[in-house]
Write a structure and sequence with these properties.
Structural class: alpha+beta
Distance between the termini: 32 Å
Number of strands: 10
Mean pLDDT: 88
Order of helices and strands: EEHHEHEEHHEEEEE
Largest sheet: 6 strands, mixed
Shape: elongated
Length: 239
């Protein structure tokens, strides 16, 4: 029964390796790992140069589009100032495991996504906060497309080779606001929710159905019968 000694859910293979050259995030939660990598790259590509130029002109402490990536909800940790900014966060909020079919299940998860600028003066905020509108639009566009030429030469980041997601989509709503940090520091931010589905591997003993052959005999009241009175055959062709 060695085929039952390990299993895969989404992009994660269990049991987790005792040692690995990868981070625990990459091995245990590749969906979040690759979304963080992907989002950081596309934000750098599509808004980074302009954001940094405007920050320099305004004297704001922004040297790159994403200075820190985290799989944590950043709000509780801002009170202790653990991060550098701008900050990108992708973190799990909830999940629901349901049946995709009789022998396959899927996990539908809501992920929080946050992009947080450093504390700014009112003048700096007036110059830089318009970039937050672009954050949500860039992420939504590149999730819908599933790739960007600037990231791994256009690799399909949602595919089995990377995040291994069945689906990924942004809802229609997001929030622009300010995170309250330590010492009444205010961090301009955009937050949204990404919904993903990850699928369990199929049960290993199942054999794909390729078709059926059926026959029905007719039994008469005088104990005679007609063999194969009805016979039919169906073949399933997988394109």
């Amino acid at each position: 029964m060695s085929e039952f000694s390990s299993f895969k859910y989404g992009g994660t293979v269990y049991p987790l390796p005792t040692s690995s050259p990868n981070s625990l995030l990459r091995d245990a939660d590749p969906a979040v790992y690759w979304l963080l990598e992907y989002f950081s790259a596309i934000l750098t590509t599509h808004l980074g140069a302009r954001l940094v130029a405007e920050a320099i002109a305004a004297g704001a402490p922004v040297a790159e589009a994403v200075a820190y990536k985290t799989p944590l909800d950043p709000l509780p940790w801002l009170l202790e100032e653990h991060f550098t900014f701008p900050l990108l966060a992708v973190y799990r909020m909830s999940n629901a495991i349901t049946r995709k079919s009789t022998n396959w299940s899927q996990d539908t998860c809501k992920l929080g996504v946050a992009y947080v600028l450093p504390p700014l003066t009112p003048g700096q905020a007036e110059v830089l906060m318009p970039v937050l509108t672009s954050v949500s639009r860039i992420l939504a566009s590149r999730i819908e497309q599933g790739f960007d030429p600037s990231f791994l030469n256009g690799a399909r980041v949602l595919s089995a080779a990377y995040a291994n997601l069945d689906t990924a989509s942004f809802p229609a709503d997001g929030s622009f606001g300010v995170f309250q940090g330590m010492g009444n520091l205010e961090f301009p931010s955009w937050t949204g929710t990404l919904t993903i589905t990850e699928r369990q591997m199929p049960a290993p003993e199942l054999v794909a159905l390729t078709g059926t052959d059926n026959q029905i005999d007719l039994n008469n009241s005088d104990d005679t019968s007609v063999v194969n009175f009805v016979a039919f055959k169906s073949d399933i062709v997988v394109p």
